[in-house]
Design goal:
- By secondary structure, this protein is an alpha/beta fold.
- It is built from 12 helices and 15 strands.
- The radius of gyration is 63 Å and the shape is rod-shaped.
């Protein structure tokens, strides 16, 4: 039988009646009483036994030296807690006491919780800062230098905020010849962090953005909180485009400032950091131009002086003299060659003369000149060296030194 919500009259021996309550009814009555008497109370205690099941609710125990109280943060409230609940943390909570009827256990339903002695956001900031620092997101070694002369700058901020006006004003004053892309986002409120992170992601899909500014004007810690969200920090860390963080005033340090490649103390300073001062650039270029012109002029004058010196030198001043000297030298060479050739010819002439004399001495004509003669056959002009083959009456030719005769053999003498 179900006794829920039922009450039974009971007659006692004295004739009076007693009211008997079902457990659920008594529990409900207790719950109603507790919820009435302990509605919206502040409680301070040490957090322990923190549990976060898949439901998203967070269960914990608040305790002090002599008592403990079960408490729960339902998912909708737990999602708003910025810091991480840890065992041993002293916390001040606000909520209402009720009874979990299924177990007959009273508990505190927490609507707000903050750490003792420090604000919830401040604690969340410190916890996230410590965690990201350990991961290396703030490492100075990974921070990239800003491009000295950006051609296209992206600004992620509220399009109606003073920060954007300050940035645009400074850029326009310092270096107007630069293209600016404004990515409008909310910079405050629950959706701000995700919009900023999405903007950083989207701008990184563009190929021509040289540098990016994210930021907003000053405000309370709550106002600036979007720039302390982890999703923004990780988007900045993942950005391929150098990021300048310009959030609030100089005293406001956010997680975005720590992750960014460059922190600007104010949005105005971001404008000063992102572009050089045009007039200073022009002045520097003019100085460089002047130095180059002077150096070039000195170089020309030096070269001109050297050419003048060469021109005025003896060889270049009277080039005909050099030609004459060369001709003289040529004449000497020709003369020497002629002498050598003549001497060589004379030697050859003498050598040939000797040969001629030797040949002349053995020449038949020379022999003939000494009174000798040569007898040859008429038929073939062969010399006749003996009487062999000769006969009486045979004609032969006799050659003298001067002239010859045809004679006939009249006698052969052996």
């Amino acid at each position: 039988m179900n006794f829920t919500g039922m009450a039974f009259p009971l007659i006692n021996t004295a004739g009076s009646s007693k009211k008997i309550l079902a457990v659920s009814m008594l529990t409900r009555m207790i719950r109603n009483s507790l919820e009435k008497d302990f509605f919206h109370v502040w409680v301070i205690g040490e957090v322990s036994n923190v549990r976060s099941p898949l439901s998203g609710h967070v269960y914990l125990t608040l305790k002090d030296a002599s008592a403990q109280l079960q408490a729960v943060l339902f998912k909708s409230v737990a999602n708003t807690v910025k810091f991480e609940l840890k065992d041993g943390m002293e916390a001040v909570v606000f909520g209402s006491v009720t009874v979990y009827e299924f177990r007959g256990q009273y508990q505190l339903i927490i609507e707000h919780i903050e750490p003792k002695g420090i604000g919830a956001l401040q604690l969340a900031f410190l916890q996230l800062k410590e965690r990201l620092e350990k991961e290396g997101l703030f490492d100075p070694a990974r921070k990239r230098p800003l491009p000295p002369f950006p051609r296209k700058i992206a600004i992620v901020t509220s399009p109606t905020g003073a920060a954007m006006k300050d940035i645009l004003k400074v850029i326009s004053r310092r270096f107007a010849k630069v293209e600016i892309v404004v990515y409008p986002v909310r910079v405050q409120g629950d959706c701000a962090a995700h919009e900023i992170a999405q903007a950083i992601h989207d701008l990184n899909t563009l190929s021509d953005i040289d540098v990016m500014i994210i930021g907003r004007g000053g405000g309370s810690l709550e106002d600036l909180w979007a720039f302390n969200e982890e999703v923004v920090a990780r988007s900045i860390y993942a950005s391929k485009i150098p990021v300048i963080s310009a959030v609030g005033h100089e005293i406001d340090v956010t997680i975005s400032d720590l992750v960014a490649d460059k922190r600007a103390l104010t949005p105005t300073e971001a404008g000063e950091l992102v572009v050089p001062l045009h007039d200073q650039i022009v002045e520097s270029l003019e100085k460089i131009k002047t130095r180059l012109v002077r150096a070039l002029y000195n170089k020309i004058m030096l070269t001109k002086g050297r050419l003048q010196t060469i021109k005025e030198s003896l060889s270049y001043k009277k080039p005909i003299d050099k030609i004459m000297r060369l001709q003289q030298k040529s004449d000497e060479i020709v003369q020497r060659l002629s002498t050598i050739s003549k001497h060589k010819v004379e030697l050859e002439h003498e050598r040939l003369g000797g040969i001629v004399n030797r040949l002349d001495n053995v020449s038949p004509l020379r022999v003939l000149s000494r009174g000798y003669s040569i007898t040859t056959a008429i038929e073939d002009s062969r010399p006749i060296k003996s009487i062999k083959g000769l006969s009486i009456g045979k004609k032969v030719k006799i050659q003298f030194s001067h002239g010859s005769v045809i004679s006939s053999i009249i006698e052969i003498m052996k």
